[in-house]
Design goal:
Layout (H helix, E strand, L loop, with lengths): L6 E6 L8 E7 L7 E9 L12 E6 L4 E5 L3 E5 L17 E2 L6 E5 L2 E5 L5 E2 L11 E2 L3 E5 L8 E3 L12 E2 L12 E4 L2 E7 L5 E4 L5
Parallel strand pairs: 14-15
Antiparallel strand pairs: 1-2, 2-3, 3-4, 4-5, 5-6, 7-8, 8-9, 9-12, 10-11, 12-13, 15-16, 16-17
Length: 207
């Protein structure tokens, strides 16, 4: 019999899968066989998502919230991170993703990318690279990409517009710089004279 919330440590140096390793188990209830592995140091085979491969390192947690460290995959963390837990820190290198695949936002050395899919499609059987070869990045837009010439860059089209302005009822009255743009009463305007307020001029001929 066991006690929920308690646990035990197993040192395994046998020839079985997942050894050698040190494992920490947590008891889920008083039933003797009701326990879960929560930490492993050493051979990570079959623990969490490691599968049938002998990879050595340290891992802890479950499939939703975990820390995994090994030479093959590096450091991987999945958890709920509160803003108050990270204060005055600088994160350097690597990438930050809101999801592993599909629709997501990713921050990397290439800037901020908004993905709508993993990849945009495939070449057909007569394609240059053969049947089934995927093409495209799936990126809808880039922000601060050093390979682009503008700070905001839409890389693919869609059923929707590329940028949305608030349709104002009147010109802004705050500080304005030459080149600022707004939409007033359905018309695109640009600031042609800086000031507070600036001078707002309709762009081109708009009815």
């Amino acid at each position: 019999m066991g006690v929920a919330g308690k646990g035990f440590v197993l040192m395994d140096s046998s020839s079985e899968d997942g050894s050698p390793s040190m494992r920490v188990y947590e008891r889920n209830s008083a039933t003797w066989y009701d326990y879960s592995e929560v930490v492993r140091v050493g051979n990570l085979k079959f623990y969490l998502d490691y599968g049938d491969t002998n990879i050595f390192g340290i891992a802890m947690g479950n499939s939703y919230s975990y820390v995994k460290v090994d030479a093959t995959n590096g450091v991987r963390v999945s958890a709920n991170i509160e803003a108050s837990r990270i204060s005055g820190s600088t994160i350097i290198g690597g990438s930050i993703k809101t999801a592993e695949s599909g629709m997501r936002v990713e921050i990397s050395e290439l800037g901020i990318a908004t993905y709508v899919t993993d990849q945009t499609g495939k070449y057909n059987s007569a394609g240059k690279w053969g049947a089934g070869t995927k093409y495209g990045t799936g990126v809808r837009a880039w922000i601060a990409n050093p390979e682009k010439n503008v700070p905001f860059y839409c890389s693919t089209d869609s059923l929707y517009g590329d940028f949305h302005y608030v349709n104002r009822a009147s010109n802004p009255v705050g500080v304005a710089e030459i080149g600022d743009t707004v939409v007033v009463d359905g018309k695109l305007k640009v600031c042609t004279t800086a000031g507070t307020p600036g001078t707002w001029t309709i762009v081109g001929s708009q009815s």
